[in-house]
Design a protein that fits this description.
6 helices, three-stranded antiparallel β-sheet, 3 strands
């Protein structure tokens, strides 16, 4: 990894890990959006993450969803407003805390699971083509360690 810097203090961007992480993220994000759109579903990858979290557990607060999708609360509120407009989710007042809203899937949000999950699996199959499983597991562990190194000490 030291090859991303030159002896005179320059940077070789094409050798920087974060450059490649960003490129893969952007390319996979665009591919996912295209796949979903081909099914007539206009959702962003951020909305996809919200759907996946709600398929795991619905009736959670916006704050909980924000934490579980690595977004701030105002951004999550905007994402949910668009999803509500498109009939994917509904927000209800929390009966135990009138300040909070609980988020639930609509019938449409539930029905998208099968088609979109299949598309996500197909995309992952494309991404992993020609890469041994052990390499993928090593990459995931390495990225998890890098993330842990970046987190502030608690």
């Amino acid at each position: 990894m030291r090859d991303q810097f030159t002896a005179d203090g320059g940077i070789v961007l094409d050798n920087a890990l974060s450059y490649w992480v960003a490129r893969v993220y952007l390319a996979s994000r665009a591919a996912m959006y295209r796949r979903f759109r081909a099914h007539g579903v206009e959702i962003t990858p951020e909305q996809w993450m919200v759907l996946v979290r709600l398929w795991e557990q619905e009736g959670v607060t916006q704050t909980h969803l924000a934490e579980r999708t690595f977004r701030d609360v105002p951004t999550m509120s905007r994402i949910l407003a668009l999803m509500e407009r498109d009939g994917l989710v509904e927000r209800r007042l929390d009966p135990t805390d009138r300040r909070a809203r609980l988020v639930y899937l609509t019938a449409r949000g539930r029905t998208l699971r099968k088609a979109l999950s299949g598309e996500a699996m197909a995309l992952v199959d494309t991404l992993r083509t020609g890469i041994p499983e052990e390499d993928l597991l090593t990459t995931r562990r390495t990225l998890q360690r890098i993330l842990a190194n970046l987190e502030p000490e608690g």
